[in-house]
Specification:
Strand content: 5-15%
Shape: globular
Largest sheet: 6 strands, mixed
Radius of gyration: 28 Å
Number of strands: 20
Helix content: 25-40%
Structural class: alpha/beta
């Protein structure tokens, strides 16, 4: 009988085996699989327990192996020696292929894992997965210390599984149902040797550069690859155990096993350099050619780096740009509605060579990122204007900006070395996608509705948000604080309005305020879909789409965004749009309502809009309570008096 056939036979018994204790399962495994069975040991607390149990079952007559990646902590080596001495056992040590490590480091640097999830997984693949494959060759079963409580990616782990990644052999996780307390009670009661990093705040231990102590109240796996989101925190050693969950993550079949929606394209991008890689990149940036960024490209740069624009890792190349403009798709076919590009003048472009690195500067001349120039190409501004904005009039602010840009576009990946600064007072509200996702998880929000705004929240907005919140676990109020048109109310004034409104009129435990440092394009329907995709990356499962979303003037119909959303399949977008018609204050109802809920004639209605609020402020009229809450009206009135008295 083949290994796979035998594995399937054991899998049929999995329900019965699930009920066995850890020691009973080990006794069964040794009876069936010995001597073609081994324990994989990375000297975590769980493996100290398993080694002691295995020693009780078989004395010193069992196989155990470890992977020495070349980047382990000294405490791990000390633990290995202590276990050897206590149990008198031989530990097989497997090392990575030296030529593969040398090639990887030569091409990507010693600390490549900080650059992206893909590069980190490459490092794990060479240093851990390939040696694991050699260690398991010719075996019928292997034992691990996986527990369901360890991570969101391990919640479905069973005590007996089929490891399809290693020829269909059996994988045993005897401690799958154990709690952290059970592990440590066993260690202390039996005076077992264990890795002393655990005493320093390391509940999970891996390679030294990729593992840190966790902070109070953090998840037990928070110290592993801490710059990544929880759903990506696996190295590939246990791919079979998490295969089902991984498929759900990528396809959106389920919300990452955590109740969270998958990022657009399946993974959250991280192009923020840290540690030695950041220092080395900054050091060499002084010798590179330089490009100065304006306010919009600076905000685009940061949002690319933190994953808000996932799956993009940099400014678009020609294939992505042309397909987005013409079809609202990336070259991969993934839905994407707005071009994100870096433009330079023709003279600047002549000095740049494809394949070189370029330093990107902020307005003060400081280096904020390094750009890996893969492609430079020309484009038709009028064509982009018509297809993206549906007009070529330079009165449209998005078209005006487009016409001011250079004639050559640069495509390539970016690596952020310094975060651009926000206006004073915004820092506490500036949360990256990984951070909002972590907060949603901590609060237990499985459904989260996002609200995009560039205006103070008036009564109509409040009505819409609370109507949506009735159906959701949480609300993300996510005001845009990047570049807007000149007559918009300043971001710092709007932030004060949001603060007092949430303080007095929203349930704080179900509301999160975070600023979005993006720039407005005023691209109407296309931008409304774009805003939904971005909020999906921040972890929202639903997104409010109101009247004239992302519109300006009379360039778009009031509900054209709804029509565009309707063109896309569920799998294209994943995040669910919530459509809200125009709300108004009805004097007869004495409440905010909409045409769907109010039976009265329009003569009883008071129209509410950000435009109308600005008009009243400009002429110095107070904002009536039907428009906005008094606390918000007071802030806006104070600002407008100072604004117009200075003119």
């Amino acid at each position: 009988m083949s290994i796979t056939a035998k594995s399937q036979d054991w899998l049929q018994q999995s329900e019965a085996l699930e009920k066995l204790s850890a020691t009973e399962l080990l006794e069964w495994a040794f009876k069936i699989f010995y001597p073609r069975i081994t324990l994989a040991c990375s000297f975590q607390a769980e493996e100290s327990v398993l080694i002691d149990m295995m020693h009780a079952v078989r004395g010193s007559d069992f196989r155990i192996f470890t992977l020495d990646t070349g980047r382990l902590n000294q405490e791990t080596y000390d633990c290995m020696d202590a276990i050897r001495q206590r149990y008198g056992i031989h530990i097989e040590v497997f090392f990575p292929d030296a030529s593969q490590v040398e090639s990887m480091v030569r091409n990507y640097g010693l600390n490549l894992f900080y650059k992206s999830v893909d590069l980190r997984k490459m490092c794990c693949g060479i240093r851990k997965v390939e040696p694991l494959n050699r260690a398991l060759k010719g075996l019928d079963a292997w034992i691990t210390g996986l527990r369901r409580e360890q991570a969101v990616t391990r919640g479905a782990v069973r005590k007996v599984e089929i490891d399809k990644d290693h020829g269909g052999i059996v994988k045993l996780n005897p401690l799958a149902d154990w709690s952290d307390r059970q592990v440590w009670d066993y260690i202390h009661e039996n005076h077992l040797p264990y890795n002393k990093l655990h005493d320093q705040g390391y509940p999970s231990i891996g390679c030294a550069p990729c593992t840190r102590a966790i902070k109070p109240a953090e998840d037990v796996r928070a110290g592993r690859w801490w710059w990544e989101t929880p759903e990506s925190k696996e190295c590939g050693l246990h791919a079979a155990s998490i295969a089902k969950e991984a498929v759900k993550t990528v396809t959106g079949e389920e919300k990452n096993g955590t109740g969270q929606i998958a990022p657009h394209g399946g993974r959250l991008i991280n192009r923020v350099l840290v540690g030695q890689e950041q220092e080395e990149t900054l050091a060499k940036s002084g010798e590179l050619k330089k490009i100065a960024l304006n306010a919009r490209t600076l905000s685009d740069l940061e949002l690319l780096a933190v994953g808000a624009f996932s799956p993009l890792e940099g400014f678009m190349g020609r294939k992505d740009y042309e397909r987005v403009v013409n079809e609202m798709r990336l070259s991969s076919g993934l839905l994407w509605t707005l071009p994100l590009t870096l433009a330079v003048s023709s003279d600047e472009a002549k000095e740049l060579r494809e394949g070189e690195e370029i330093a990107l500067l902020d307005s003060s001349g400081e280096v904020v990122a390094v750009f890996f120039l893969e492609e430079k190409y020309g484009y038709d501004k009028k064509e982009e204007a018509w297809k993206v904005y549906r007009t070529d009039e330079d009165k449209h602010p998005g078209v005006w900006y487009l016409y001011q840009r250079g004639n050559t576009l640069l495509g390539g990946k970016i690596s952020l070395v310094r975060r651009p600064s926000l206006l004073s007072g915004f820092e506490a509200y500036k949360l990256d996608p990984a951070e909002t996702r972590a907060i949603f998880k901590q609060r237990g929000w499985r459904t989260v509705v996002g609200f995009q705004t560039r205006n103070p929240i008036h009564r109509s907005h409040e009505y819409i948000q609370k109507s949506a919140l009735e159906l959701m676990d949480g609300l993300l109020i996510h005001p845009l604080v990047g570049k807007t048109k000149l007559d918009d109310i300043p971001s710092e004034v709007r932030l004060r309005c949001y603060e007092v409104l949430i303080e007095h009129y929203f349930p704080k435990e179900r509301t999160l305020l975070s600023v979005f440092p993006g720039a407005m394009r005023y691209a109407g329907p296309r931008e409304a879909v774009f805003h939904a995709i971005v909020r999906k990356n921040y972890g929202c499962t639903h997104f409010i789409v109101g009247r004239d979303a992302a519109g300006i003037g009379g360039y778009y119909g009031p509900y054209e965004a709804w029509d565009l959303f309707a063109l896309f399949k569920r799998d294209d977008l994943d995040i669910t749009p919530l459509f809200f018609a125009e709300a108004f204050y009805c004097r007869k109802c004495d409440a905010v309502a909409s045409a769907k809920t109010c039976p009265h004639e329009s003569r009883h209605h008071v129209a509410l809009s950000g435009t109308r609020v600005r008009e009243l402020l400009q002429v110095g009229d107070p904002l009536p309570p039907e428009f906005t809450r008094p606390e918000v009206g007071e802030i806006l009135g104070e600002w407008s008096r100072g604004q117009f008295n200075d003119q």
